Amino acid sequence: MSLPASPWWSPTVHADRRPFLLARQRIAGKLREFFAARDFIEVETPILQVSPGNETHLKAFATELERPDGTRTTRYLHTSPEFTAKKLLAAGEQRLFTLARVFRNGERTGRHHPEFTMLEWYRAHEGYEALMADCAELLVSTAEAVGTTAWRYGDQACDVALAPERLTVADAFIRFAGIDLMATVGEDGNDRDALWNAARAAGIRVAEDDTWADVFTRVMVEKIEPFLGLGRPTILCEYPISEAALARPKPSDPRVAERFELYVCAVELANAFGELTDADEQRRRFEQWMDEKERIYGERYPIDEDFLAALKVMPEASGIALGFDRLVMLASGARRIEDVIWAPVAP
Protein backbone atom coordinates (compact mmCIF):
# COMPACT_ATOMS: atom_id res chain seq x y z
CA MET A 1 0.00 0.00 0.00
CA SER A 2 1.53 3.30 -1.09
CA LEU A 3 1.67 6.27 1.24
CA PRO A 4 -0.39 9.36 0.33
CA ALA A 5 1.55 12.14 -1.40
CA SER A 6 2.70 14.99 0.81
CA PRO A 7 0.72 18.23 0.36
CA TRP A 8 2.19 21.09 -1.67
CA TRP A 9 2.72 23.11 1.54
CA SER A 10 4.96 20.44 3.05
CA PRO A 11 8.36 22.13 3.60
CA THR A 12 10.19 19.39 1.69
CA VAL A 13 7.78 19.51 -1.25
CA HIS A 14 7.89 23.30 -1.30
CA ALA A 15 11.68 23.29 -1.25
CA ASP A 16 11.71 21.08 -4.33
CA ARG A 17 9.21 23.31 -6.13
CA ARG A 18 10.61 26.68 -5.04
CA PRO A 19 13.22 27.06 -7.84
CA PHE A 20 10.42 26.72 -10.39
CA LEU A 21 8.27 29.24 -8.52
CA LEU A 22 11.12 31.76 -8.39
CA ALA A 23 11.57 31.27 -12.14
CA ARG A 24 7.86 32.05 -12.50
CA GLN A 25 8.38 35.33 -10.66
CA ARG A 26 11.33 36.31 -12.85
CA ILE A 27 9.46 35.43 -16.04
CA ALA A 28 6.40 37.44 -15.03
CA GLY A 29 8.61 40.46 -14.35
CA LYS A 30 10.43 40.03 -17.66
CA LEU A 31 7.18 39.83 -19.59
CA ARG A 32 5.84 43.00 -18.00
CA GLU A 33 9.04 44.73 -19.12
CA PHE A 34 8.58 43.18 -22.58
CA PHE A 35 5.11 44.65 -23.04
CA ALA A 36 5.90 48.00 -21.46
CA ALA A 37 8.76 48.43 -23.96
CA ARG A 38 6.23 47.94 -26.78
CA ASP A 39 3.68 50.45 -25.46
CA PHE A 40 1.16 47.92 -24.15
CA ILE A 41 -0.99 48.76 -21.15
CA GLU A 42 -1.74 46.07 -18.55
CA VAL A 43 -5.45 45.63 -17.81
CA GLU A 44 -7.47 43.64 -15.29
CA THR A 45 -10.60 41.76 -16.31
CA PRO A 46 -13.51 40.54 -14.12
CA ILE A 47 -13.69 36.82 -13.44
CA LEU A 48 -17.50 36.68 -13.15
CA GLN A 49 -19.09 36.70 -16.60
CA VAL A 50 -22.51 36.34 -18.23
CA SER A 51 -20.99 33.71 -20.52
CA PRO A 52 -17.83 31.67 -19.95
CA GLY A 53 -17.26 31.30 -23.69
CA ASN A 54 -19.14 29.32 -26.31
CA GLU A 55 -16.77 26.70 -27.68
CA THR A 56 -18.37 23.26 -27.89
CA HIS A 57 -16.05 21.28 -25.63
CA LEU A 58 -15.30 24.02 -23.10
CA LYS A 59 -16.49 23.18 -19.57
CA ALA A 60 -16.98 26.02 -17.12
CA PHE A 61 -17.59 26.62 -13.42
CA ALA A 62 -20.98 28.16 -12.62
CA THR A 63 -22.05 30.14 -9.58
CA GLU A 64 -24.88 32.46 -8.49
CA LEU A 65 -24.78 36.24 -8.24
CA GLU A 66 -27.13 37.60 -5.58
CA ARG A 67 -28.31 41.15 -6.23
CA PRO A 68 -29.07 43.63 -3.41
CA ASP A 69 -32.81 42.97 -3.86
CA GLY A 70 -32.27 39.26 -3.21
CA THR A 71 -32.82 38.07 -6.78
CA ARG A 72 -30.28 35.62 -8.15
CA THR A 73 -28.79 35.00 -11.55
CA THR A 74 -26.24 32.55 -12.94
CA ARG A 75 -22.73 33.76 -13.58
CA TYR A 76 -19.66 31.86 -14.75
CA LEU A 77 -15.97 31.96 -13.92
CA HIS A 78 -14.38 33.07 -17.17
CA THR A 79 -12.40 30.57 -19.22
CA SER A 80 -10.53 33.43 -20.90
CA PRO A 81 -10.39 37.23 -20.54
CA GLU A 82 -11.03 37.52 -24.29
CA PHE A 83 -14.55 38.98 -24.25
CA THR A 84 -13.57 41.75 -21.82
CA ALA A 85 -10.31 42.48 -23.65
CA LYS A 86 -12.23 42.98 -26.89
CA LYS A 87 -14.71 45.27 -25.15
CA LEU A 88 -11.71 47.36 -24.09
CA LEU A 89 -10.58 47.48 -27.73
CA ALA A 90 -14.08 48.71 -28.61
CA ALA A 91 -13.69 51.34 -25.88
CA GLY A 92 -10.57 52.69 -27.58
CA GLU A 93 -7.56 50.87 -26.15
CA GLN A 94 -4.92 50.19 -28.81
CA ARG A 95 -2.48 47.72 -27.26
CA LEU A 96 -3.28 45.80 -24.10
CA PHE A 97 -2.22 42.70 -22.20
CA THR A 98 -3.41 40.83 -19.14
CA LEU A 99 -2.17 38.04 -16.90
CA ALA A 100 -5.55 36.63 -15.94
CA ARG A 101 -6.58 33.83 -13.64
CA VAL A 102 -8.94 31.63 -15.65
CA PHE A 103 -10.96 28.49 -14.91
CA ARG A 104 -11.77 25.37 -16.91
CA ASN A 105 -13.63 22.41 -15.46
CA GLY A 106 -12.75 18.81 -16.19
CA GLU A 107 -9.13 19.59 -17.05
CA ARG A 108 -6.35 18.24 -14.81
CA THR A 109 -3.27 16.58 -16.30
CA GLY A 110 0.44 17.20 -16.33
CA ARG A 111 -0.27 20.07 -18.76
CA HIS A 112 -3.69 21.21 -17.47
CA HIS A 113 -5.01 22.69 -14.23
CA PRO A 114 -8.58 23.78 -13.40
CA GLU A 115 -7.35 27.24 -12.34
CA PHE A 116 -4.44 28.69 -14.27
CA THR A 117 -2.96 31.91 -15.64
CA MET A 118 -3.58 33.06 -19.19
CA LEU A 119 -1.41 35.71 -20.80
CA GLU A 120 -3.39 37.48 -23.49
CA TRP A 121 -2.43 40.47 -25.60
CA TYR A 122 -4.15 42.41 -28.37
CA ARG A 123 -3.08 44.83 -31.10
CA ALA A 124 -5.69 47.12 -32.66
CA HIS A 125 -5.25 47.89 -36.37
CA GLU A 126 -2.46 45.29 -36.72
CA GLY A 127 -2.50 41.90 -38.42
CA TYR A 128 -1.81 38.56 -36.81
CA GLU A 129 1.63 38.44 -38.43
CA ALA A 130 2.64 41.02 -35.80
CA LEU A 131 1.75 38.44 -33.15
CA MET A 132 4.00 35.89 -34.82
CA ALA A 133 6.91 38.32 -34.39
CA ASP A 134 5.82 38.94 -30.78
CA CYS A 135 5.95 35.21 -30.05
CA ALA A 136 9.52 34.82 -31.32
CA GLU A 137 10.69 37.82 -29.28
CA LEU A 138 8.73 36.80 -26.19
CA LEU A 139 10.35 33.35 -26.14
CA VAL A 140 13.80 34.95 -26.21
CA SER A 141 12.86 37.34 -23.39
CA THR A 142 11.58 34.43 -21.32
CA ALA A 143 14.81 32.55 -21.96
CA GLU A 144 16.76 35.53 -20.63
CA ALA A 145 14.81 35.27 -17.36
CA VAL A 146 15.90 31.64 -16.86
CA GLY A 147 19.36 31.87 -18.39
CA THR A 148 18.97 29.35 -21.22
CA THR A 149 17.41 29.07 -24.66
CA ALA A 150 17.69 25.26 -24.63
CA TRP A 151 14.36 24.03 -23.31
CA ARG A 152 13.36 20.41 -22.72
CA TYR A 153 10.12 18.64 -21.94
CA GLY A 154 10.30 14.90 -21.54
CA ASP A 155 12.39 13.58 -24.42
CA GLN A 156 11.81 16.66 -26.58
CA ALA A 157 14.14 19.65 -26.97
CA CYS A 158 13.83 23.08 -28.54
CA ASP A 159 16.16 26.06 -28.93
CA VAL A 160 13.83 29.04 -28.56
CA ALA A 161 16.48 31.43 -29.84
CA LEU A 162 15.96 30.00 -33.33
CA ALA A 163 13.39 31.64 -35.58
CA PRO A 164 10.10 29.71 -35.49
CA GLU A 165 9.19 27.58 -38.48
CA ARG A 166 5.94 28.72 -40.09
CA LEU A 167 3.91 25.74 -41.24
CA THR A 168 0.36 25.74 -42.57
CA VAL A 169 -2.07 23.16 -41.26
CA ALA A 170 -2.50 21.83 -44.80
CA ASP A 171 1.26 21.34 -45.20
CA ALA A 172 1.46 19.67 -41.78
CA PHE A 173 -1.25 17.16 -42.77
CA ILE A 174 0.69 16.27 -45.89
CA ARG A 175 4.10 16.12 -44.17
CA PHE A 176 3.16 14.13 -41.08
CA ALA A 177 0.03 12.21 -42.07
CA GLY A 178 0.14 12.01 -45.85
CA ILE A 179 -3.37 13.53 -46.04
CA ASP A 180 -4.53 16.20 -48.49
CA LEU A 181 -6.60 18.14 -46.01
CA MET A 182 -7.70 20.90 -48.35
CA ALA A 183 -9.27 18.36 -50.69
CA THR A 184 -11.82 17.84 -47.90
CA VAL A 185 -12.38 21.53 -47.10
CA GLY A 186 -14.91 23.74 -48.87
CA GLU A 187 -16.35 27.21 -48.32
CA ASP A 188 -19.84 25.73 -47.95
CA GLY A 189 -18.89 22.71 -45.86
CA ASN A 190 -16.35 19.95 -45.36
CA ASP A 191 -16.30 16.45 -46.83
CA ARG A 192 -16.48 14.25 -43.75
CA ASP A 193 -16.27 10.96 -45.62
CA ALA A 194 -13.18 11.99 -47.58
CA LEU A 195 -11.28 12.94 -44.43
CA TRP A 196 -12.55 9.88 -42.54
CA ASN A 197 -11.30 7.55 -45.29
CA ALA A 198 -7.97 9.35 -45.60
CA ALA A 199 -7.39 9.18 -41.84
CA ARG A 200 -8.24 5.50 -41.74
CA ALA A 201 -5.83 4.85 -44.62
CA ALA A 202 -3.16 6.70 -42.62
CA GLY A 203 -3.59 4.21 -39.75
CA ILE A 204 -5.67 6.42 -37.47
CA ARG A 205 -8.49 4.78 -35.53
CA VAL A 206 -11.75 6.51 -36.38
CA ALA A 207 -15.29 5.84 -35.22
CA GLU A 208 -18.34 5.48 -37.44
CA ASP A 209 -20.03 8.46 -35.79
CA ASP A 210 -16.98 10.77 -35.94
CA THR A 211 -17.68 14.15 -37.48
CA TRP A 212 -15.22 15.94 -39.76
CA ALA A 213 -14.06 17.95 -36.74
CA ASP A 214 -13.57 14.77 -34.69
CA VAL A 215 -11.36 13.23 -37.38
CA PHE A 216 -9.43 16.49 -37.80
CA THR A 217 -8.66 16.48 -34.06
CA ARG A 218 -7.61 12.82 -34.10
CA VAL A 219 -5.11 13.49 -36.90
CA MET A 220 -3.77 16.56 -35.11
CA VAL A 221 -3.27 14.75 -31.81
CA GLU A 222 -1.86 11.49 -33.16
CA LYS A 223 0.11 12.48 -36.24
CA ILE A 224 0.99 16.17 -36.11
CA GLU A 225 1.30 17.73 -32.65
CA PRO A 226 3.99 15.25 -31.44
CA PHE A 227 6.32 16.62 -34.14
CA LEU A 228 5.82 20.36 -33.68
CA GLY A 229 8.25 22.66 -31.92
CA LEU A 230 11.13 20.18 -32.03
CA GLY A 231 14.55 21.77 -32.47
CA ARG A 232 12.95 25.17 -33.03
CA PRO A 233 9.51 26.64 -32.25
CA THR A 234 6.69 26.03 -34.71
CA ILE A 235 3.96 28.44 -35.76
CA LEU A 236 1.13 26.31 -37.15
CA CYS A 237 -1.14 28.59 -39.19
CA GLU A 238 -4.11 28.82 -41.55
CA TYR A 239 -6.61 26.53 -39.86
CA PRO A 240 -9.68 25.45 -41.86
CA ILE A 241 -12.46 28.00 -41.42
CA SER A 242 -14.61 25.44 -39.58
CA GLU A 243 -11.90 25.46 -36.88
CA ALA A 244 -11.68 29.25 -36.84
CA ALA A 245 -13.19 29.87 -33.39
CA LEU A 246 -13.17 33.68 -33.13
CA ALA A 247 -10.84 34.26 -36.11
CA ARG A 248 -11.70 35.90 -39.43
CA PRO A 249 -11.32 34.24 -42.85
CA LYS A 250 -8.07 34.80 -44.72
CA PRO A 251 -8.79 37.25 -47.57
CA SER A 252 -6.70 35.30 -50.12
CA ASP A 253 -8.38 31.98 -49.30
CA PRO A 254 -11.67 32.09 -47.34
CA ARG A 255 -11.49 28.31 -46.79
CA VAL A 256 -8.92 28.99 -44.04
CA ALA A 257 -8.80 31.36 -41.07
CA GLU A 258 -6.26 33.85 -39.79
CA ARG A 259 -5.41 31.59 -36.88
CA PHE A 260 -2.13 30.16 -35.64
CA GLU A 261 -0.86 28.16 -32.69
CA LEU A 262 2.63 28.27 -31.19
CA TYR A 263 4.36 24.99 -30.27
CA VAL A 264 7.52 24.33 -28.27
CA CYS A 265 8.70 20.78 -27.45
CA ALA A 266 5.46 19.38 -28.92
CA VAL A 267 3.46 21.44 -26.39
CA GLU A 268 0.87 23.95 -27.55
CA LEU A 269 1.69 27.28 -25.92
CA ALA A 270 -0.53 29.84 -27.61
CA ASN A 271 -3.53 30.33 -29.88
CA ALA A 272 -3.80 33.51 -31.98
CA PHE A 273 -6.39 35.10 -34.25
CA GLY A 274 -6.84 37.84 -36.75
CA GLU A 275 -9.98 38.79 -34.86
CA LEU A 276 -13.43 38.35 -36.34
CA THR A 277 -15.40 41.62 -36.11
CA ASP A 278 -18.56 40.49 -37.92
CA ALA A 279 -21.06 40.24 -35.05
CA ASP A 280 -23.65 38.38 -37.13
CA GLU A 281 -21.13 35.73 -38.19
CA GLN A 282 -19.90 35.42 -34.61
CA ARG A 283 -23.46 34.88 -33.39
CA ARG A 284 -23.96 32.20 -36.05
CA ARG A 285 -20.82 30.39 -34.87
CA PHE A 286 -21.79 30.66 -31.21
CA GLU A 287 -25.25 29.22 -31.89
CA GLN A 288 -23.80 26.40 -33.98
CA TRP A 289 -21.30 25.48 -31.24
CA MET A 290 -23.97 25.60 -28.54
CA ASP A 291 -26.28 23.39 -30.59
CA GLU A 292 -23.43 20.88 -30.83
CA LYS A 293 -22.68 21.21 -27.12
CA GLU A 294 -26.29 20.51 -26.26
CA ARG A 295 -26.28 17.47 -28.55
CA ILE A 296 -23.13 16.03 -26.94
CA TYR A 297 -23.33 17.18 -23.30
CA GLY A 298 -26.97 18.14 -22.81
CA GLU A 299 -26.21 21.74 -21.84
CA ARG A 300 -25.50 25.11 -23.42
CA TYR A 301 -24.04 28.41 -22.21
CA PRO A 302 -25.65 31.80 -22.80
CA ILE A 303 -24.34 34.19 -25.42
CA ASP A 304 -22.91 37.46 -24.12
CA GLU A 305 -25.04 39.98 -26.00
CA ASP A 306 -22.92 42.83 -24.63
CA PHE A 307 -19.88 41.26 -26.29
CA LEU A 308 -21.62 41.03 -29.66
CA ALA A 309 -22.69 44.67 -29.35
CA ALA A 310 -19.08 45.67 -28.65
CA LEU A 311 -17.88 43.59 -31.59
CA LYS A 312 -19.85 45.85 -33.94
CA VAL A 313 -17.67 48.85 -33.03
CA MET A 314 -14.41 47.04 -32.28
CA PRO A 315 -11.63 47.95 -34.73
CA GLU A 316 -9.76 45.40 -36.82
CA ALA A 317 -7.36 43.71 -34.43
CA SER A 318 -5.29 40.65 -33.66
CA GLY A 319 -5.13 38.81 -30.36
CA ILE A 320 -3.44 35.86 -28.72
CA ALA A 321 -3.84 33.67 -25.63
CA LEU A 322 -0.73 32.02 -24.18
CA GLY A 323 -0.68 29.55 -21.30
CA PHE A 324 1.62 31.29 -18.83
CA ASP A 325 2.00 28.25 -16.58
CA ARG A 326 3.00 26.09 -19.54
CA LEU A 327 5.53 28.71 -20.59
CA VAL A 328 7.07 28.66 -17.11
CA MET A 329 7.02 24.86 -17.04
CA LEU A 330 8.96 24.60 -20.31
CA ALA A 331 11.38 27.43 -19.54
CA SER A 332 12.20 26.21 -16.02
CA GLY A 333 12.43 22.50 -16.82
CA ALA A 334 9.53 21.51 -14.56
CA ARG A 335 7.88 18.16 -15.24
CA ARG A 336 4.28 19.09 -14.39
CA ILE A 337 2.23 22.25 -14.52
CA GLU A 338 1.47 21.99 -10.79
CA ASP A 339 5.19 22.39 -10.07
CA VAL A 340 5.03 26.02 -11.28
CA ILE A 341 1.79 27.02 -9.50
CA TRP A 342 2.30 28.50 -6.03
CA ALA A 343 -0.77 26.85 -4.51
CA PRO A 344 -2.42 24.18 -6.69
CA VAL A 345 -6.16 23.54 -6.43
CA ALA A 346 -7.06 20.68 -4.09
CA PRO A 347 -7.85 17.41 -5.92
TrEMBL record:
<keyword id="KW-0030">Aminoacyl-tRNA synthetase</keyword>
<dbReference type="InterPro" id="IPR018149">
    <property type="entry name" value="Lys-tRNA-synth_II_C"/>
</dbReference>
<dbReference type="GO" id="GO:0005829">
    <property type="term" value="C:cytosol"/>
</dbReference>
<dbReference type="GO" id="GO:0000049">
    <property type="term" value="F:tRNA binding"/>
</dbReference>
<dbReference type="InterPro" id="IPR045864">
    <property type="entry name" value="aa-tRNA-synth_II/BPL/LPL"/>
</dbReference>
<dbReference type="Pfam" id="PF00152">
    <property type="entry name" value="tRNA-synt_2"/>
</dbReference>
<keyword id="KW-0547">Nucleotide-binding</keyword>
<keyword id="KW-0067">ATP-binding</keyword>
<dbReference type="GO" id="GO:0005524">
    <property type="term" value="F:ATP binding"/>
</dbReference>
<dbReference type="GO" id="GO:0004824">
    <property type="term" value="F:lysine-tRNA ligase activity"/>
</dbReference>
<dbReference type="GO" id="GO:0006430">
    <property type="term" value="P:lysyl-tRNA aminoacylation"/>
</dbReference>
<protein>
    <submittedName>
        <fullName>tRNA synthetase class II (D K and N)</fullName>
    </submittedName>
</protein>
<dbReference type="InterPro" id="IPR004364">
    <property type="entry name" value="Aa-tRNA-synt_II"/>
</dbReference>
<keyword id="KW-0436">Ligase</keyword>
<dbReference type="InterPro" id="IPR006195">
    <property type="entry name" value="aa-tRNA-synth_II"/>
</dbReference>
<dbReference type="InterPro" id="IPR004525">
    <property type="entry name" value="EpmA"/>
</dbReference>
<feature type="domain" description="Aminoacyl-transfer RNA synthetases class-II family profile">
    <location>
        <begin position="24"/>
        <end position="347"/>
    </location>
</feature>
